[in-house]
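Predict the structure of RNase H type-1 domain-containing protein.
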Amino acid sequence: MSEMGTGVVGRDSNGACCAWSCRCFPFCGGAEHAELMAAREGVELAIREGWTDVVFEGDNSSVISRFQSLEEDLSALGSLTQYIVLFGAGAGA
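Done. Here is the predicted structure for RNase H type-1 domain-containing protein.
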C-alpha cells in the first residue's frame, strides 16, 4: 500500500468552479480504491456545500459500474461503495 491524494472540483452549470477539495491519505489499496476515495470526497463536498442537484462524473468504468449495479457489493471495497451511494443520494445524486 502507498499514499494517495484526491482532488475534487465542484462546478456550476456553466463550468465555473464553485468549490474544491483535496486530501491526502496515508494508504491506498490501488487505483480503484483511489477513485472511490475521490468519489467519497466529491459526495462530502456536495453535502458540505448544501448542493441538492448534483451530477457526479468519473472516468473509471469499474467504479462507475459499482454505482450502477443493483447487486450488493461484497468486495473489500463494498462498504466504501455503499457509503458513497447512500450519502450521494442525500446529496441529490
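Residues 4-90 form one domain.
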